[in-house]
Design goal:
Rossmann fold, 36% helix, 274 residues, ABC_AA/LPS_Transport, alpha/beta, ATP binding, ATP hydrolysis activity, binds adenosine-5'-triphosphate
């Protein structure tokens, strides 16, 4: 993809607008005791972009996503979001700032319906608490109605109307992944983090998920950062790719550059991938 890079952004080959920097990771180092999961990594994520993080198993990708979403606080480095340095925050505070995520292993309430699971994605946006709901019924009811309408829009968008009342535990894997995406979208995030959204899916399910990710990006303007092992998917979907290996960044750029990057090719040689 030939792009005229600038600080304001650029237009992609398929006509999408990439804006200025939304999130910047500066010299991030993360240790678990003696294990260095991330060593001095810097990269940025731009508004409207689909940004992939790839690398062999144990490279530090999930750790990086956990730093972005506030689950881990790095020992060194700075996280900048929307032009401001982010102080150490709890994950729910990060979520309130407009960052939502899905997990490598699906994290849904199996006994609850699809609709109710997606509704939990709106919790960080709910203004009234229980006491207010008791005292100020009108406002709480109005709020509830708005939340339900927003959830219904997402259900339509992701084409899961037919399972809205079904307990999540009864769904096949691919649909559970779609419900997880729906729950993350219910928070109306500015930045959506997807941890291996296609893992364990068959070809048809992967194609569906790809389409939904592109549609979310296109129609809601959501910036997306994703970890994915399927190289075909990564190269098709993403605008730019960060490559990690043993906790270090060994590549960063558009898919065409990454494909021909020798350090990246070497890191992948002899490593098995799905
Ligand atoms: N909570 C933790 N405690 C101790 N070590 C951890 C923890 N989380 C990750 N690590 C270690 O940090 C390194 C990076 O792990 P991480 O899960 O981030 O890699 P990854 O690239 O996401 O791997 P995969 O593709 O297998 O999911 C590994 O050596 C891992 O064992």
């Amino acid at each position: 993809m030939a792009q005229a890079y600038s600080t304001e952004g650029w237009i992609t080959a398929d006509g999408r607008k990439i804006g200025p920097v939304l999130m910047e990771m500066k010299n991030i180092t993360l240790r678990f005791g003696g294990v260095k999961a991330i060593t001095d990594i810097s990269f940025d994520i731009r508004e409207g972009e689909i940004r992939a993080i790839i690398g062999p198993n144990g490279a530090g990708k999930s750790s990086m996503l956990n730093v972005i979403s506030g689950f881990y606080v790095p020992q060194e480095g700075e996280v900048w979001f929307r032009g401001a340095k982010r102080p150490p925050m709890k994950p729910y505070e990060v979520a309130r700032q407009g960052i939502a995520r899905t997990f490598q292993n699906i994290a849904l309430f199996e006994g609850m319906s699809v609709l109710d699971n997606i509704m939990t994605g709106r919790l960080t946006m709910m203004e009234t608490n229980l006491a207010q709901q008791a005292l100020w019924w009108g406002k709480a009811a109005r709020e509830e109605e708005e939340h339900r309408a927003a959830v219904e829009r997402i259900i339509d968008f992701l084409e899961i109307q037919h399972i809205r009342k079904t307990p999540v535990g009864r769904l096949p894997y691919g649909l559970k992944k779609r419900v997880e995406l729906a729950r993350a979208l219910a928070a109306e995030p500015k930045l959506l983090l997807l941890d291996e959204p296609m893992a364990g899916m068959n070809v048809e399910e992967k194609e569906d998920m790809c389409r939904f990710i592109l549609d979310v990006n296109d129609e809601f303007g959501t910036t997306i950062a994703l970890i994915e092992h399927d190289m075909g998917v990564v190269m098709d979907l993403s605008d730019r790719v960060v490559v990690m290996d043993y906790g270090k960044k060994i590549g960063d750029g558009p898919p065409d550059d990454i494909r021909s990057n020798k350090a990246v090719i070497d890191a992948y040689l002899g490593v098995s991938h799905e």
